[in-house]
């Protein structure tokens, strides 16, 4: 593993990826530490106060950890396209007595400044960024308080501005990853490039340590990524069914359902490309969903919450990478130890 990460006490090169919306929990991060790895809290969709509470829970365990933030990279939605989409999904929302036809267009920055202030005043060992490269001044300020900065990229071209902005490490995410793509150009769907090839091309472009992410769900996949030039690997989907994960029950059940045969890259839930298990909602709406993040996220969120509470897997975002068949229901430290067994 690259020296910057090993210095944090992470001897296991398989890290627990941040998964926003519930799956990443303080218990999951602590379990990663028990496996000799590093876990990340997901700061996305949380207020600074809620994130601070989770940080304190992990800090009290006396383990190394990271925090991931969504860096602002909004995709403004065209109002008429938003209204058309609201009308299209209205029947799904009405199943839970929700009216989306009068929904406001919400464009926010996910409490960005408050979270940066928190991480500067109460530094954590590692901070990673997804969706955009923060201003160099933000990265420099974090590094000045002793924080290691990781930037998510999806192409060698994105790696260059990340390195120039001062990132210490790059998380190289292939299109096989579950959940949102970290692409810096969300109006475009990322090309399907195998992770080993993407790592090789990124290694040729920059000299920073690389963390491989996207579709890695087996010991063989971990070993292949490390041979291809990664210094560490991030596992996300493989942990979604872990005992400590906060994944909703219908989401966990869908991952284990043999009838779920494919994943799709869709904008249907949030207006930004994301990989999920195909379900009724993606089948009906992927072809008509406009670009528009976070507006579509806010539009569909009440329906997704209601569906999750009702145990309905057909109207929730079943985020999953291509390796979802390997997700298992067991303690997270056992999963991470097994994934590293061929290293």
Sequence-ordered SSE layout with sheet pairings:
Layout: H1 3-6, E1 14-16, H2 26-34, E2 39-42, H3 48-59, E3 65-70, H4 79-94, H5 112-121, E4 126-130, H6 136-144, E5 148-153, H7 156-165, E6 169-173, E7 179-180, H8 195-205, E8 210-213, H9 219-227, E9 232-235, H10 249-256, E10 263-266, E11 274-277, H11 280-285, H12 295-310, H13 332-339
Parallel strand pairs: 1-9, 2-3, 3-4, 4-5, 5-6, 6-8, 8-9
Antiparallel strand pairs: 7-11, 10-11
Helix pairs in contact: 2-3, 4-12, 7-8
Task: Give keywords.
14% strand, nitronate monooxygenase activity, three-stranded antiparallel β-sheet, 11 strands, alpha/beta
How would you describe this structure to a colleague?
The protein has 343 residues and is of the alpha/beta class. The chain folds into 2 domains: 3-74 and 109-245 and 327-339, TIM Barrel; 75-108 and 261-317, no CATH class. Helices cover 37% and strands 14% of the residues. It has helices at 3-6, 26-34, 48-59, 79-94, 112-121, 136-144, 156-165, 195-205, 219-227, 249-256, 280-285, 295-310, 332-339, and strands at residues 14-16, 39-42, 65-70, 126-130, 148-153, 169-173, 179-180, 210-213, 232-235, 263-266, 274-277. The strands form 2 sheets. Strands 1-9-8-6-5-4-3-2 form an 8-stranded parallel β-sheet. It has a 3-stranded antiparallel β-sheet with strand order 7-11-10, with no helix packed on it. Helix 9 links the parallel strand 8 and strand 9. The longest helix has 16 residues, at 79-94. The radius of gyration is 19 Å and the shape is globular.
